Amino acid sequence: MSWKSLVGLSVVLYSVNGLLHRTIMKDDNSDAYAQAVVFTGLVALFFLIILLFRGGFQLPGSWIQSLFMIFGAVFSSIGMVFTFKGFKSMGASE
Fold this sequence. Notes:
The protein is 77% helix and 0% strand. With 94 residues, the protein is mostly helical. It is globular.
């Protein structure tokens, strides 16, 4: 696949992802923390399946790389919770 088709696919899938999360988070009893945990778990499961089919994965070579991975996971989780809280405050039609 060329990079242009991958960019187009990324735009379409990101739009569908945003619409899906907006419709899920529109109810008053929806929880942004639970949505972030479920979404992160599904993404991790998807990547684990892909990695297993591609021949496995390697652990980071140094402790500093592990530290950067932990920081990345923490900050992306915080950002995801804020994104889902934003989807909750914004209506599904906006």
